[in-house]
Design brief:
2 domains, 15 helices, TIM Barrel, alpha/beta, single chain, globular
Length: 430
């Protein structure tokens, strides 16, 4: 089905936004070099957590199923989901947890992904593991055990937290050590790179807005970025030359300053500090950054624009434009740093054309798809072969996958993968 470019542009105009959209999507098939590694194409499976690991943090049956489907799907880069660096930093009791005890299971799934992809596509994807501590959103035993960087009156309006939840500088030092140690384990497991996760309100990300925190992790820009930059520098300095050290970075929290990073006092995106941070990461030797915005626990429409939801929100095209145009602004400040875009899934069948147009116009370098991979795990194969997505296979941006996750279940696509996930949705959400 050919891309209806004129109709798409009319829909965008009604919302007051405009995207570059290319008829020819072949730019997405082009490889891209990241240091000594080459990503086979410009299509990225974003880190979508399945909450389906075992109690001790190993990939479970549904985890393996999901990554086998993605491996066959043809994307050049698989951003492996959030993997805790320590037990108290798990976001749920089934979040993956990489440690010496579970290392063999991660070695097995990485090997399986690469073997499956080689058989199906003739090439293996680059696989980057997300190395995280959940901080404010830690629930290792199934109930909240928050470790916060600072009090946030917006997020805590209806549920004020005790000062005892504020993590000490010494504890943050240990978390940094664990993030770095887990990066070493990721190398041993066979991953091609590691993401020092700094997004969506988790600990590393929340520190970026710790304007009023005393001590070495708060106040100044240098202090607020310390955990991310010092951990990244340590891993870069000790990792093999071909190991990619990167970051999924929140450049805008969607909260008014001083309650959020990357925002002006009126709440609009302010690129000054995010650009400074990207420049700093680039100077450390980082060559690739995966850019995102928003807090999925508080304002999910910002990083995950959706068609309908439980609270008033904007048209999804507005959210996608905020994301992509914000990345464009940052790319102008760091032209040599490869940037991955987010939020494309909400564009449906138009997504590859917008992604191609943006890449051709220098907005970003790789196109990341999140919820789309739950609904349409072979999305990349169709784009690479035909230049199009099949509308009947696309994510419909209904957010039912997120509803399952918030209810404590194992998320997946209720619409396109209904045999597996519709019963789960009914169990947890109905």
């Amino acid at each position: 089905m050919a891309f209806a470019k004129e109709e798409f542009q009319k829909q965008c105009a009604k919302q007051g936004v405009c995207f570059p959209a290319a008829d020819d999507t072949s730019v997405l098939t082009a490889p891209v070099a990241v240091g000594d590694r080459t990503i086979p194409n410009r299509l990225v499976c974003q880190a979508m957590e399945g909450c389906d690991g075992t109690a001790d943090g190993r990939p479970g049956e549904l985890t393996v199923r999901r990554y086998e489907r993605l491996a066959r799907g043809g994307a050049g880069l698989i951003w492996f989901e959030a993997t805790a660096c320590m037990q108290n930093g798990r976001a749920n009791p089934r979040q993956l947890f990489l440690c010496e005890k579970t290392l063999d299971s991660f070695q097995a799934i990485v090997e399986r992904i690469k073997e499956t992809a080689m058989k199906a596509n003739g090439y293996a994807p680059v696989i980057i593991m997300q190395d995280t501590h959940s901080g404010r959103y830690s629930k290792p035993s199934g109930y909240p055990e928050p470790m916060i960087a600072h009090h946030n009156p917006v997020l805590e309006k209806d549920n004020p937290l005790s000062d005892t939840c504020i993590v000490t500088d010494d504890a943050i030092d240990r978390i940094g050590e664990n993030l770095a140690a887990t990066a070493v384990l990721a190398q041993k497991a066979g991953f091609d790179g590691v993401d020092i996760k700094c997004c969506h309100g988790y600990l590393n990300s929340e520190l970026l807005s710790a304007f009023d925190r005393p001590g070495k992790y708060g106040g100044s820009f240098e202090n607020r970025t310390r955990l991310l930059t010092e951990t990244a520098a340590k891993v870069i300095d000790t990792a093999p030359k071909d190991f990619i050290v990167t970051c999924r970075l929140n450049v805008y929290d969607g909260l008014k300053k001083p309650n959020g990073f990357g925002a002006a006092p009126d709440g609009v995106f302010d690129p000054k500090e995010p650009a400074m941070l990207l420049q700093k990461l680039s100077a450390l030797g980082m060559r690739l950054v995966n850019v995102t915005m928003g807090n999925p626990y508080f304002n999910p429409h910002i990083n995950r624009p959706f068609a309908a939801g439980p609270y008033p929100a904007e048209h999804p095209f507005i959210g996608v434009h905020r994301m992509l145009d914000g990345i464009r602004t940052l790319k102008e400040n760091v032209p040599d740093l490869l940037l991955i875009a987010s939020a494309l899934s909400a564009l449906g069948a138009a997504a590859p054309h917008v992604a191609a147009g943006c890449i051709q116009n220098g907005w970003f370098d790789l196109a990341g798809f999140g919820r789309m991979i739950f609904a349409y795990p072979d999305f990349a194969k169709d784009i690479l072969k035909t230049g199009e997505l099949q509308p009947q296979k696309c994510c419909v941006a209904c957010s039912k996958c997120s509803a399952i996750m918030r209810a404590g279940g194992t998320p997946g696509c209720v619409i396109r993968d209904r045999e597996v996930y519709l019963p789960i949705y009914r169990q947890y959400c109905e």
